[in-house]
Amino acid sequence: MLCIMMTYNENRKIDRSSKKIEREIERKREREKKRKRKREREKEREKDRRQCRRILKRVKIRRKDNIDTR
After folding, report:
1. pLDDT digits (tens, 9 = 90+) for 60-69
2. Distance between CA atoms of 30 and 13, rounded to whole angstroms?
3. C-alpha pair distances (Å), 24 with each of 10, 28, 29, 32
4. How far from chain centre, in Å, is Cα 55?
5. Amino acid 58: pLDDT
6. Where are the alpha helices (DSSP H) in the chain?
7. How far apart are CA 44 and CA 11, in angstroms?
8. Measured between alpha carbons, how far is residue 38 from residues 3, 26, 29 in Å?
9. Per-residue CA distances from 57 to 6, 28, 30, 62, 70 (Å)
10. Where is there biased composition of kind Basic residues (predicted)?
11. What's the pLDDT tens digit per position in 20-66?
12. How far is it, in rounded angstroms, from Cα 66 to Cα 70?
């Protein structure tokens, strides 16, 4: 009986530790997902900034041309 209880307790410990490890792995995955999303957002922002700069440059050039032709 004592032997059975010991193995049961050992199994519980092992089970708890494996669950703990699984939770850690899950947390790590979640952190990676967050980082990835953050990187993607930053890429999108940079893309938008570049596009805005291009548009602004075009508008400036057009304005200069309009001023010159007048």
Report:
1. 777 766 666 6
2. 26
3. 21, 6, 9, 12
4. 29
5. 83
6. 2-69
7. 49
8. 52, 18, 14
9. 76, 43, 41, 9, 20
10. 30-40
11. 899 999 999 999 999 999 999 999 999 999 998 888 888 877 776 66
12. 6
Nearest to 54 by CA among 62, 43, 66, 64: 62
Token look-up 């940079």 returns 46
- Here the tokens at position 16 are 């708890």
* Cα distances (angstroms) measured from residue 50 to each of 19, 21, 47, 53: 47, 43, 5, 5
Q: 10-15 long-range CB contacts below 8 Å, 24 or more apart?
A: none
CA–CA dist 21, 27 (Å, integer): 10
Single pTM value for the model: 0.54
Instruction: Read off the DSSP letter of residue 27.
Output: H
